[in-house]
Design a protein that fits this description.
mainly beta; four-stranded antiparallel β-sheet; flat
Length: about 375
């Protein structure tokens, strides 16, 4: 199987797009495990009655990573029993690792909406978890964290508008759609991997905490406070920010690392497990990079920077050397490739010999 595209491993599995003929003119999308075994093809996805469906647009792009043995998908239902109104970039189905549907808007969504609102007109039931981040249709940008938002629109004299609920990976409601919510959920559910929020509530994916937003509170103020708290907890209590000078600040807004003194450039440096990649510029405006620890110590002498991946599991892809480096600047294994993904669950995809993607482990050995 010649792999043309691969997603990062999550929950022990990854999506790959592979050529299905020698000419490379036919492709199919598969779910594989860490040994490269095919679990199923997206072309044979079936519903609860054994009916097969094509993924929207037949591109396979509308699929997420797996989490808690489930993933989200947008599936076109050609024989839908209901008039399903779903935004093209929103999930409408939860699937398992066998390609079987756990929960769908077309079936359970409408059935449960009628139970919640038996005496009012339901004008739409659709997903409110977007696949895209801005205009980027790349599912690696926003990982699935086990929750899917569902919006139910109703029209009655008492209330015309939306109710939004949240499902877990097994299709159970963790937030029932019983509180009116306005449309800010559309902008909220696709801009983070850590929580979902509406005008009425915020749900933290990391802790399972449901926070009710008071009617006189600004939902975005609540969201900003939670987002800041989560960011610091994930990134060694350090956040890069513009200051005087620029650098990494702690939660009390105290400067901890002065990056201006290092001749650092860029505004996207992030600490991961105690280390951060810092991009530098010399007096001749040539770009370099190094890695620092939480004290600001440089782990190795600056090296040429023509591009790099994110620091993940203590490693990152270095474009100039077409290889992976650790936090000490040491190369991981001997294998090189023109492109490389970030490490995830101990594995990373590397484009070798400008031909196809292979998967390497933390020692640099090819495993797929």
């Amino acid at each position: 199987m010649s792999i043309d595209f691969a997603s990062d491993f999550s929950d022990g599995v990854a999506w790959v797009t592979a050529s299905t003929n020698e000419e490379g003119t036919s492709h199919e999308q598969f779910l594989i495990d860490k040994k490269g075994n095919i679990l199923f093809s997206s072309s044979v996805l079936t519903d609860q009655n054994g009916n097969q469906f094509d993924f929207y647009g037949n591109t396979g792009v509308n699929l997420t990573n797996y989490y808690n043995d489930a993933a989200l998908a947008y599936i076109s239902y050609p024989d839908a029993k209901y008039n399903v109104t779903t935004a093209d970039d929103c999930a409408n189905t939860i699937i398992n690792k066998n390609g079987e549907i756990i929960w769908s808007i077309e079936k359970e969504g409408w059935e449960e909406a009628k139970k919640f609102f038996p005496d009012v007109e339901i004008t739409s039931v659709h997903g409110a978890t977007n696949f895209t981040n801005g205009n980027t249709a790349d599912l690696r940008t926003i990982p699935y964290r086990g929750y899917m938002a569902v919006e139910i629109e109703v029209d009655s004299f008492e209330y015309t508008g939306s109710y939004i609920g949240l499902l877990d990976a097994q299709g159970n409601w963790v937030v029932e759609p019983t509180t009116p919510c306005d449309s800010i959920a559309y902008s909220a559910f696709h801009n983070t991997e850590d929580y979902g929020f509406t005008s009425a509530w915020l749900f933290r994916y990391d802790t399972g905490e449901l926070i009710t937003i008071k009617s006189d509170a600004d939902p975005f103020d609540v969201e900003d406070d939670i987002a800041t708290e989560i960011y610091f907890s994930k990134h060694n209590n350090l956040m890069w920010d513009i200051g005087n000078p620029d650098g990494f600040f702690d939660p009390s807004n105290k400067l901890v690392i002065d990056t201006e003194a290092m001749s650092a450039v860029g505004d996207d440096a992030v600490f991961e497990d105690g280390y951060a990649i810092i991009e530098l510029e010399n007096e001749q405006d040539s770009r370099y990079l190094t890695v620092i620890d939480t004290t600001g110590k440089q782990m190795f002498s600056p090296i040429k920077n023509t591009g790099h991946g994110n620091l993940s599991e203590g490693k990152f892809y270095w474009d100039e050397g077409q290889c992976y480096l650790d936090v000490n600047g040491e190369q991981i294994g001997d294998i090189t490739g023109a492109r490389g993904h970030d490490f995830s669950e101990g594995l990373a995809w590397l484009y070798i010999n400008n031909e196809e993607w292979h998967c390497i482990d933390g020692e640099g050995n090819i495993v797929i």
